[in-house]
Each structure stands twice: as C-alpha cells, then as structure tokens.
C-alpha cells in the first residue's frame, strides 16, 4: 500500500526565513515520534531564503492530520504563524511508492 | 553543511506511467550504493498517473551528477527514454537543512 507524501512550502516575512526554518526543524524532532511519520525534511531555496520547504511521508493522510493535533506541535504552529507572510498553501500531495533511504 | 535536495518529475507516454515508476524504483535500488545518496524516493500523483515524481537527497550536487555516469544507471536511463513524453525538466533544487527519517 502506498504512503502519503506531501511536499509544500511556508513563506516567512522578510528576514524571518531562518527563524521559521529553525521552528520547522524543531517540529521535525517532535513528529519523529508521531504515529506513522516516516519522513519530515526541511529545505530552503538559497535564491528565495524566506521560503521554507517541508517534505513529509506518513503511513496515511489521517496520521498526518492527527499530528497537527499534538499539543507540542500546535504550540510550535502558534509560534510560526506570526512569522508567516500570508496564508500557507496546501502542499503537493502524492502517493509514495517506495525507494531508498526511508525506514 | 546543507545537502543537495532535488524534487522533480518525469512524464510517461499514455499507459506507461506504471512501467516508468517500476524502472525508477529499480534505479532507487541501484543508487542506494552510490556515493553520497541519502534519499531516492518514487511517488505518483493518483490524478496524473503518467507523471512519476523523484525526490532525492545527496551529500553534494556533484555526487548526484556522478551517479548518472554509473553504467547500470545509464542502462536504466536508456530503457526509460522511450517511455517518456517529451524532454525531462530539471527538478526543483533545494538545500536540505535537516529533519526526521533520513540517515
């Protein structure tokens, strides 16, 4: 059965890209223990440093949505919101078939 | 130091999406031993099954480019080319900062 793959970005206000990336790296440590989380990667585009990219693989979409209800994750999200420039867009949802490097 | 992250897609001709995905899954097994390859994931968009997505993390861009010179990888690429609809586009290049789930 394929897993749930999500690749999306968050835009920070001017000068806050680094701070947002740090928060999302912290989030990656939190969701490491969340049910069904296989991958939660943080990347940036050097040409657009205010945009932080999150690439995730979860056993199911439901596992992903449940992770957003975890108290510590909700608290991180509330810290991130003031750093954001505009509404976050839903990421690109794919079905993960397999590959190398993921547990 | 950040790693090299690449997220891109290949478009198959009508009815060949599955075959292309299988070839890329085979490629993921090959590059598992290539220098600097941390991640090589294959995904599809259920709504656009002819498009196969590849998400990669390498220690360096050079490691990624060197992998394309490996004989077995070149042979797989030559099998994939007849399945493609048009020229492959360069993927989205990012700097991978960190996260969960990657060795």
TrEMBL record, chains A, B:
<keyword id="KW-0503">Monooxygenase</keyword>
<dbReference type="InterPro" id="IPR007138">
    <property type="entry name" value="ABM_dom"/>
</dbReference>
<dbReference type="InterPro" id="IPR011008">
    <property type="entry name" value="Dimeric_a/b-barrel"/>
</dbReference>
<keyword id="KW-0560">Oxidoreductase</keyword>
<dbReference type="GO" id="GO:0004497">
    <property type="term" value="F:monooxygenase activity"/>
</dbReference>
<feature type="domain" description="ABM">
    <location>
        <begin position="4"/>
        <end position="94"/>
    </location>
</feature>
<dbReference type="Pfam" id="PF03992">
    <property type="entry name" value="ABM"/>
</dbReference>
<protein>
    <submittedName>
        <fullName>Antibiotic biosynthesis monooxygenase</fullName>
    </submittedName>
</protein>
């Amino acid at each position: 059965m394929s897993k749930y793959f999500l690749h999306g970005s968050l835009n920070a206000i001017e000068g806050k890209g680094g701070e947002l990336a740090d928060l999302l790296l912290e989030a990656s440590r939190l969701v490491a223990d969340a049910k069904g989380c296989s991958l939660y990667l943080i990347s940036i585009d050097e040409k657009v440093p205010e945009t932080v990219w999150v690439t995730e693989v979860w056993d199911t979409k439901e596992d992903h949505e449940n992770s957003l209800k975890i108290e510590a994750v909700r608290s991180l999200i509330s810290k991130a919101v003031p750093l954001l420039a505009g509404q976050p867009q839903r990421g690109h949802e794919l079905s993960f078939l397999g590959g190398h490097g993921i547990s």
